[in-house]
Amino acid sequence: MKIDRIGLITMHGMSRRRFLTTAALAGLTAACGSSSEAGASRPAGKPGFRTELRIPPLLRPEPGKGGVRRFQLTMQSGRVGILPGTSTATWGFNGSFLGPTIRAARGDKIQMAVTNRLPETSTVHWHGMRLPAKMDGGPHQPIEPGATWRPHWTVDQPAATSWYHPHPHGKTAMHVYRGLAGMFIVDDDVEVELPDRYGVDDIPLILQDKSFAADGSLAGDPLKGTFGILGDHILVNGTYDPFVNVTTERARFRILNGSNARMYNLAFSDRRKFHVVGNDAGLLPAPVTADRVSLTPGERMEIVVDFAPGEQVVLRSVGGSADIDEGDLELLKIVAAARLADSQPLPARLARTAPIAVPAGARVRRFKLNGHDAINGKEMDPTRIDEVVPAGATEIWEIENSVYAHNFHIHEVAFRILDVGGSAPPGYATGHKDTVYVPSKTTVRLAVEFGRHTDPRTPYMYHCHILRHEDSGMMGQFVIVEPGTENQISRTIPAAHHHM
Ligand code: C2O
Ligand code: CU
Ligand code: CU
After folding, report:
1. For 87, which of 211, 298, 381, 489 is 20 to 30 Å away at the CA?
2. Ligand 1 neighbourhood includes 175 CB (under 6 angstroms)
């Protein structure tokens, strides 16, 4: 990150000191000198919590004509200090690593300009956004090196924590692993008294696991083995070994699993209870108390945690048996100030959106996840339309898993988990979602609400969000069309119309 880019980001919600720290961490290679005890080879699981959590800056939009908010993102390569005494070659948006947090409200007209300064073609997908297929940023909207892509849409969905990341077919795993990912917060005007001061009591946590070579470079092949990368160093917002100071009685954490394959079973070191207030696609109707929650790649969760003055607690991941959640990991130490500012009590009611209801006679579609590279026996083919869905439909999608751990993400939609292996989902996962864990040998049923943007020639994707699986073909394509025209829709996209 060059200093002149700092003009693009705002200090909203951050003290100047924290802002400068953040900018320095984002922009400079290891300022922290080499320290013999804090070597790169220290195994994960024995952290010292030495580095203050980096908070991604908010991206300030420029005002455009007709109330349009214009956001500029540049995909670029650079170097960043992650492990003490080393620097790592990485990719990022508007900086060397990760990206700024985009924040927009329901009703906003958004105009994006995404410039690719990388040496290869990429795309930027707005994961969780409800928008026309041409704006979605999947494999059919490539951005060549040197080019700028300008999608635009009007935000029309409830408040949620979304994110953005590349989606070039076969290369998503590598592009995300190198550092291309950022948070995208949607606000709405429903009055809910949740902590909302960004970086103060509303804190983004992007969880990612990486492996490093001795010289600090990223190691591991995201397309190797059954799952690709399961890194032995956990980064939060790109910070290794992080702590964060909280200054209020209650803080909200927006947690994004931005890992290639790893699943986290989140709990606190003292097993305290916390309040889950949001799933991927919006707030829950009411807070749900939990002491442990699971998050697979691509999923988000918002939690609110109560703190006592002066206490310290560690956010951990508890090892499980899913192959992608091995080992107990320490993620982040939270340090409460000796005096904490008052927070609003937790509201009893949150989202006003009704749960997604299944209409009588809803269409049922079945998807079988095969091995680690196919759905219903077919590998992803960018020229093939797999499913044609009428606009505005609510359908039941049944996802059956045979072997390995998988999850399932659907672009453009919100869904509700009906059941997992015949049982109701845990209370903390009953809200609007767009990505769901599908354990091995289990069937998950979803009530899926589709949007109303029609385009018979440009597909949206559904896929496993373990990026190694997505890249090797565990992905399919659907179009949303005018109801009644389903049978007239061509199931192939002429080669001239796709750019792979
Ligand atoms: Cu987050 Cu199709 O992806
Ligand atoms: Cu998506
Ligand atoms: Cu998978």
Report:
1. 298
2. no
Distance CA 181, CA 221 (A): 18
CA-proximal residue: ligand 1, atom 1 (nearest): 127
Tell me if residue 247 falls in helix, strand or coil: strand
For the chain, give the number of residues.
500
Measure 406 CA to ligand 3 centroid, in angstroms. 4
Per-residue pLDDT tens digits for 91-144: 999 999 999 999 999 999 999 999 999 999 999 999 999 999 999 999 999 999
In the predicted model, is pLDDT for residue 358 greater than 80?
A: yes
φ and ψ of 391, to 5 deg: -55, 140
CATH code that applies to domain 1-350: 2.60.40.420
Q: Of the CATH numbers 2.160.20.60, 2.60.40.420, 3.40.50.1820, 3.40.50.980, which one belongs to the domain with range 364-497?
A: 2.60.40.420
Q: How far is CA 212 from the centre of its chain?
A: 22
DSSP 201: T
Q: Which pTM value belongs to this model?
A: 0.91
Helix ranges (DSSP H) in 60-206: 172-177
Distance 47 CA to ligand 1 centre (A): 31
DSSP letters spanning 403-454: SS-EEEEETT-EEEEEEETTBPPPGGG-S-BSEEEE-TT-EEEEEEE--S--
> Is the distance from the beta carbon of residue 275 to the nearest atom of ligand 1 less than 6 Å?
no
Question: Could you tell me which of 375, 356, 357, 378 has the C-alpha nearest to residue 366?
Answer: 375
Regarding the beta carbon of 300 and ligand 1, being less than 6 Å apart is answered no
> What's the mean pLDDT in 185-205?
96
Instruction: Report strand pairing: 460-463 vs 406-410.
Output: antiparallel
Indicate which residue's Cα is closest to atom 3 of ligand 1.
Answer: 127
| DSSP H or E segment with residue 24 | helix 16-27
Which H or E run contains 25?
helix 16-27
Burial class of residue 129 (count of CB atoms within 10 Å of its CB; 0-12, 13-18, 19+): buried
The amino acid at residue 288 is V
CATH fold match for the domains 1-350 and 364-497: yes
- Domain locations in the chain as residue ranges: 1-350, 364-497
**Where do we find the tokens 């007239």?**
488
Phi, psi of 496 (to 5 degrees): -65, -20
Cβ of 469 closer than 6 Å to ligand 1, yes or no, is no
Nearest to 257 by CA among 284, 277, 230: 230
Determine if ligand 1 sits within 6 Å of the CB of residue 463.
yes
In the block, residue with structure tokens 């991927």 = 280
Q: What is the pLDDT of residue 500?
A: 45
